[in-house]
Amino acid sequence: MSQAVLERRSEMLKKHIQHLLIQDNQHGISRQQSKFLQQMIKELHQTSHEMNGHK
């Protein structure tokens, strides 16, 4: 993937993660949402690793 695509993906993941964390802190999240959050965090780490590999 190009650097621009990786950066865009990273930003989108960060926004989704932030939204779920805020929701979790305010009201709690379901087990399904929690698993989704964990998967997005893994994807963010992978994306970050790929971005660092392109530099």
TrEMBL record:
According to UniProt, the name of this protein is Uncharacterized protein
Organism equals: Paenibacillus mangrovi
Q: What is the lineage of its organism?
A: Bacteria, Bacillati, Bacillota, Bacilli, Bacillales
